[in-house]
Amino acid sequence: PVLRLLEAQLQDQRREHEEEMEALKNQVDLMQEELEKQQQAFLQTLQLSPEVQVELGLQQEITRLTNENLDLKELLEKLEKNEKKLKKQLKIYMKKVQDFEASQTMVPVERRPHERNMQVAVQRKEKDFQGMLEYYKEDEPLLIRNLIT
Fold this sequence. Notes:
The chain is mainly α. It has four helices and no strands.
């Protein structure tokens, strides 16, 4: 039984190795084809006059720079939109802070202790464990199944 298991594992490894080798051979073939295409294009470029070579090089560079500029413009637009959004949020928050500060200065000193009592009440509310569930340990699988369905 152990020998059969080892043989099966060895065959699996051999099959995986052969599949990897085939994939790598295919990849090498594709790379060779691409290299041949590039070599042909290069040889064709060399056969052209120097003026045409320079012109082709300039056209390629212009195309690359144009694409790069378009990408940069798109990025700039995104950043400008984000900046506008953040400025709006900042204005809203600054207005809230100003309103809060104005309300604090208008509240008489004798009313402020009352606000502290309200804060204590809020703290007690936060400690109220609404949504908590008590169950027996043996009911856990049933509870999980019901939650999922």
